[in-house]
Design brief:
The chain is α+β, with helices and mostly antiparallel strands. The strands form three sheets. It has a four-stranded antiparallel beta sheet with strand order 2-3-6-7. Strands 5-9-8 form a three-stranded antiparallel beta sheet. Strands 1-4 form a two-stranded parallel sheet. The chain is built from six helices and nine strands, in the order ααββββαβααββββα. It starts with a helix and ends in a 13-residue tail after the last helix. Helix 3 packs across helix 5. The longest helix has 16 residues.
């Protein structure tokens, strides 16, 4: 994909070459069950709303709620990203992405993918560690570049969000 704005932004970053680790079971469970609803109704939360709370963590969300379709897309993005460095582009064609999801390759699905990636970009997630009195606020995706002619995507994932998950099987505050 030849997107000058994306390549300029990417080359200006001086990131370590790290790879995604697998998320802990507890972290995935809390986030998956709280962020990605089973409802087909997309509730819009215009203010920060508490959607999950444990003894140690409060999880708030603002934006259009994610559902299982968004979860499928997010997990496929992570699957593609595991082979790439954090902080770098995650690049794919809509055709290969939809094929990997087992979806039809047609205009309707191309449009749905646009909606899903935009929704994942727009949702604001707030995680508060009660004991540490620290809060992280961010989104799953920082930026999306799309070539509408070739249907090539470049997604920039939020590296700090991914670093919230370590091997201790719990959400941990990023360094």
């Amino acid at each position: 994909m030849n997107c000058p704005c994306a390549s300029n932004w990417l080359t200006s970053e001086n990131q370590e070459n790290k790879q995604f680790t697998f998320w802990s079971v507890a972290a995935r469970s809390l986030l998956r069950n709280s962020l990605f609803t089973v409802s087909e109704v997309r509730e819009a939360l215009p203010k920060r709303m508490l959607i999950a709370s444990t003894v140690d963590i409060d999880l708030r969300f603002m934006g259009v709620r994610f559902n299982q379709s968004d979860l499928d897309v997010w997990e496929m993005i992570l699957h593609f990203a595991r082979l790439q460095s954090l902080g770098h582009k995650v690049q794919f064609s809509a055709h290969s992405f939809l094929k990997a999801l087992g979806r039809n390759i047609d205009t309707e699905q191309f449009e749905q993918l646009k909606e899903e990636t935009a929704r994942l970009l727009g949702g604001t997630i707030e995680i508060t560690w009660k004991n540490e009195k620290k809060t992280f606020i961010g989104g799953l995706i920082e930026k999306i570049y799309r070539d509408d002619e070739t249907q090539e995507y470049i997604l920039i994932l939020n590296e700090k969000f991914v670093h919230l998950f370590n091997s201790s099987h719990a959400l941990s505050y990023p360094d």
